[in-house]
Amino acid sequence: MVNLFLWILYLATLYAFLPGLISRTFGYRVFKRGRVDKEIALTFDDGPDSVYTPLLLDLLARHKAKATFFVVGSHALGQEDILVRMKAEGHVIGIHNYVHKSNWLMRPRAVQRQIEATNDIIEKATGKRSIYYRPPWGIVNVFDFAKAGYLHIILWSAMFSDWKRSVGSEKLKKRMMKRLKPGEVLLLHDCGRTFGADPEAPENMLIALESYLEEGSKLGYRFVGIDEMIKLTETARVLHTSIWKKSLISLWLMWEKAYHVMFRLKQVGESAPTFYYRVTKYNGEPIDLEEGSRVVKGDHVAELHLDNKMLSGIAMQAKTPLAAGIKMLREIEHALPQLADQLAEDSEAKDIKAVYGVTMIHRGADRLGFEIFHLPEGWFARSTRVYLKILMSVLTNKPRTLKKKQSQNREAFSPRMLLMPASTIRRYATSKLTMLQEDTERLSNAVERTIGAATDDAAQLGTKTTAI
């Protein structure tokens, strides 16, 4: 019996207690506070209520404030006109289960049915399904995290026990005024018809909220929906890189300069380079290239290195590593003719078999003439993976909402070995020289035509002069 009790306690801890503790304490996979300058998010649970929700909407309209309503499906059923008004007045509608019941007390499938039933009512009333979810009492279970891919779980930064009538409007107002700060996500209730709440409690909330809105407006605060709060927060995360990260990037770039000096890397171009390279001996396994040549140990290759300063600039502006990779490939495409010309003039590179590099940015490289190979398993492959992953994490910004997409594209961002046969890179130079030759030939032809026309004119002039 004791063992059975311990197993039940163990499973309950894994299913509900630990996920709830982690999400509340660390904000894991939930949104609970914004990173903004002058915005506050008002959120209301348990409605709609036929009496208090319309009064609340009137109050918000008077102060031009937007809010987020997490509705209980059974309360919304039959009051769809209130949902229609919420949407028409620019508010956000979220899901708060079909009945106000803790997710700890329901199996995953039951929770899913609660969410979907409520979302069906929201869609029928507004024509759009909600992507925002607040579990009753903010209690999540381990399976709620699995649904975070399409639902944003919204908690709060401040709540005030406004569901109790005994708190009173004055005490409630004082509590709320202490949280008149940017980024706050306030939890309030527009309905008192749930377990543990007092039916008349929203009356106190409306009185306290009016004072809060008046004071907030005087101080220049904006009251926004949770969608805008999330968007502003994500933008702030991208734009305001931490001091630690900036310092780390500076150290990385200093190390790159030292590496260039130690290994005598040559810059491609005079300013804003895309590549550096060095001529070295290939030390890997033999590789057969498509055009018939073979690279074996001891062959000379031009080892390419991307400019990390340029990569950092691209990555900081890109929303995802994939976008950074696409931009980087375009830069490489533009720089290849310059590389080819420099290799053609470099006496050390006259007998190279291929251009060689290892990178995580390899999707689409085959279109430029590179051949893509897996790294042979071993210490070099393992250390390269670690190095490049650290580099990408340091140089790129990764919004949390994109993590699922990134995990699906993990294969696209694993290190690969790129080789371009010497004959292919030379064609980049040949095409450039050919263009110059064609331009010269066109100019020469134009000059000849001009001289010919002038000669004809002179001959005609001579004839006319003789006749005169």
TrEMBL record:
Protein name, as recorded: Peptidoglycan/xylan/chitin deacetylase (PgdA/CDA1 family)
Pfam family, one: YkoP
Entry-linked PROSITE patterns: NODB
InterPro entries: Glyco_hydro/deAcase_b/a-brl, NODB_dom, Polysacc_deacetylase_ArnD, YkoP-like_dom
PANTHER family: 4-DEOXY-4-FORMAMIDO-L-ARABINOSE-PHOSPHOUNDECAPRENOL DEFORMYLASE ARND-RELATED (PTHR10587:SF137), GLYCOSYL TRANSFERASE-RELATED (PTHR10587)
All copies of domain NodB homology, residue ranges: 38-224
Top-level division of the source organism's lineage: Bacteria
